[in-house]
Amino acid sequence: MPLKPPFPRILTLCRWKSGTSLRRWVQRQMVDPHAKKSKTDGYRSRAAYKLLELDTKFRLFGKSTRNIVDLGFAPGAWTQVALNKSRARGVQPSILGIDLIHCQPPEGSLFIQGDIFLKTTHNSIQAFFEPRGPLDLVLSDMMTNTSGIGDNDHFASMELCDGVLLLALQMLQKNGGLVMKFYTGKEDQILQKRLEKVFARVHKVKPAACRAELREMYFVCLRKKREVSVEELFS
């Protein structure tokens, strides 16, 4: 099925900061307990603890969870968690990371530099998993560059989430799962209703490792229940 998103293309998905915002970010990292703990535990970023908490609550990495795509991969902390949790449960997973910026993947995983809004990226993901089978789990910790204007950042996040949902719709097998970050706002319910068309269980969660002042949250979607057309999903 050709990729024809019903939304404008996001120009950038990465989260680089500059100037004053960079200085604030560095200062915050220096006192952040999760950032400090990530260095001790060997994780590439504090984001690992968000996924660890979600797995504890929802058991994302079961014995049948083998094929995983990690969107917004860099710097690779979520893939590290996925590798560790899968192996602890006796599974040797196939994990493919996707990001706009190049990043060296952790040992035991692979990486493709690409944009999920491009059909060529979808083709590359499909080619990687074709001999391995359909996806069992889609992870997305992606977020657009924030402008500081709440509504604009929210709408940009919703468009990005729609792109992730389209990928999951096309590549995730029945009973598969999706974990997706989003920036909260007035269209949360619209996105949740779309997710509920596809998944049997949809949970809206803010892990304790999320900074309280940020409007980021996660949808944890379990048990993909049926095939839904793009037209039906966005009607």
Describe the overall structure:
By secondary structure, the chain is an alpha/beta fold. It has a single domain, classed as Vaccinia Virus protein VP39 (Rossmann fold), CATH 3.40.50. Helix content is 40%, strand content 21%. It is built from 8 helices and 7 strands. The protein has a 7-stranded mixed sheet, sandwiched between helices. It is globular and about 45 Å long.
Class from helix and strand fractions: alpha/beta
Name of the CATH first level: Alpha Beta
Helix content: 25-40%
The CATH architecture assignment turns out to be 3-Layer(aba) Sandwich
What fraction strand? 15-25%
Q: How many strand segments?
A: 7
Helix and strand topology:
Layout: H1 19-31, H2 33-41, H3 48-58, E1 67-71, H4 77-88, E2 94-99, E3 110-113, H5 119-129, E4 135-140, H6 150-171, E5 172-183, H7 188-198, E6 199-205, E7 216-224, H8 230-233
Helix pairs in contact: 6-7
GO molecular function, one term: rRNA (uridine-2'-O-)-methyltransferase activity
InterPro entries: RNA_methyltr_RlmE (IPR050082), RNA_MeTrfase_FtsJ_dom (IPR002877), rRNA-MeTfrase_E (IPR015507), SAM-dependent_MTases_sf (IPR029063)
Family: Belongs to the class I-like SAM-binding methyltransferase superfamily. RNA methyltransferase RlmE family.
